[in-house]
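To whoever is on call:

I kicked off a structure prediction for a single chain this morning and the downstream step that reads the tokens threw a length-mismatch warning. I double-checked the sequence; it's 178 residues and nothing unusual in it as far as I can see. Pasting both halves so you can look.
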Amino acid sequence: MKDYPITEQQAKDMFEAHSAYIYGIALMMTKQRVLADDITQETFLRAFAKYHLYDPSRPLRPWLYRIAVNTSRNLLRRKTWIQLLAGVPIEGKEHSAESIALHSENQLELWQAVSHLSAKLREVISLHYYAGLSLPETAEVLSIPLGTCKSRLHAALRKLRECGELDPGVLMMKEGLK
């Protein structure tokens, strides 16, 4: 790849390994599929261009998430409108049609509730539950102290519990966030 400090094979491997999660983070932050596609593309272009700044002794995923979060924040700062979260596709094991429909409905209900949280609370929920980052990794990606990360997660979960329309059982399913 001309003009990039990364080989074509490294870039391809990075994209294949992390693009789905980056897209998921972008989708949860912007609530729009087209914008999530743009953010995913921009995240990888920035990562390829700044690859020389990446420290190989550290995990790649949090570094990419930091780029994705910053790219999303920059885009949202420029936007004055936000639509409701589109349904996040279900991946994983095959189930009966009834369980798939119930899981899909619960997942959509949960993400619609998450979409009503403030951007700061939504970021913590998205990175911790959807992306599967630990709280210290989430704090590092967001460049906030661990205590702040924990308090935002607690506040987000409290607000989700207070949401009158949300079935309490939905909150208990961590897999529903993935």
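Update from on-call: the warning came from a stale cache, not from the record. Cleared it. Sanity check on the structure: The chain has eight helices and no strands.
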